[in-house]
Amino acid sequence: MIVSSVLVALASTPLIPDGDGARELAEKELAKPEYQAAKPTLIDQWARAVADFLIDLFTPQHGADLGPWAAIVIGVLLVAVLIAVLLIWGRPRRSRVRSSPSVLLGSADDRTAAELRADADRAAREEDWAEAIVLRYRAVARSLIERDLIAPAPGATAQTIAREAVAPFPAESDALHEAAVAFDDVRYLGHPGSADLYHALVQTDERLRSQRPVPIEAVPA
User: CA-to-CA distance for 8 and 91, rounded, in angstroms?
Assistant: First the structure.
């Protein structure tokens, strides 16, 4: 009896939904993420509208009404506006990519090697030898990175950078080690630094800049 009642109820249920039911099913289907991701953006819609307008503008009927020069001027203006909108729309994304600073010797620092050298020289003129040594060693590290001679990890220490730099400059092993020691002394141990230490670091930096690095295949294992 129960089975027959169920069969009767199923038979009486319409398989094709009415207008409201069909609209509700369609709205639920279109609300799925895959449909939303495929939805055209505002820029896509605007670009399509401009393209349709240009196609319609240069049809024989509209071209005769406006004249050839008017149609060309309007088309050029619309294309220029579209390019401007695309440039402005893409600017925030580029700024977000560039807003992430690189990490060098435990600190976020985006300065180039030239900028670090200038700041180090400024500190040296003020006889702030500790700051000058820190900045000059950062300049050494940044210069080697800019030349693609080393690729230190974000948490690399001064000694790690010195050891990596020995591969392209094996003759500077001792000087690089002493430069890293000077950096650690003033940066972490609170030593005041000195003019002699700074000038020795400057000379090491200048030699590294002027020397040709040893090719990787020529470095002994």
Answer: 64
Give residue for tokens 């060693």: 137
Place of tokens 């002699």: 196
Nearest to 10 by CA among 19, 22, 18, 2: 2
Count of CB atoms situated within 10 Å of the CB of 51: 13
* Mean pLDDT within 120-133: 95
pLDDT digit string, tens, across residues 35-58: 555 556 666 666 677 667 666 655
What's the one-letter identity of residue 113?
A
pLDDT tens string 155-174? 889 999 999 999 999 999 99
Between 177 and 30, the higher pLDDT residue: 177
**What angle in degrees, to the nearest 10, is found between the helix axes of 113-125 and 195-210?**
160
Which of 9-18, 109-118, 197-206 is the most confident on average?
197-206
User: Is the pLDDT score of 140 beyond 90?
Assistant: yes
**54-76: buried (b, 16+ CB within 10 Å) or exposed (e) per residue?**
eeebeeeeeeeeeeeeebeeeee
Quote the CA–CA distance of 136 and 178 in Å, as a whole number: 13
Q: Report which of 148, 127, 144, 125 is spatially closest to residue 193, judged by C-alpha positions.
A: 127
Task: Tell how far CA 199 is from the center of its chain.
Answer: 36
Q: What is the DSSP-derived secondary structure letter of residue 215? A: P
Query: CA–CA separation, 1 vs 4, rounded Å?
Result: 5
Q: What spatial distance separates the first Cα and last Cα of the chain, rounded to whole Å?
A: 88
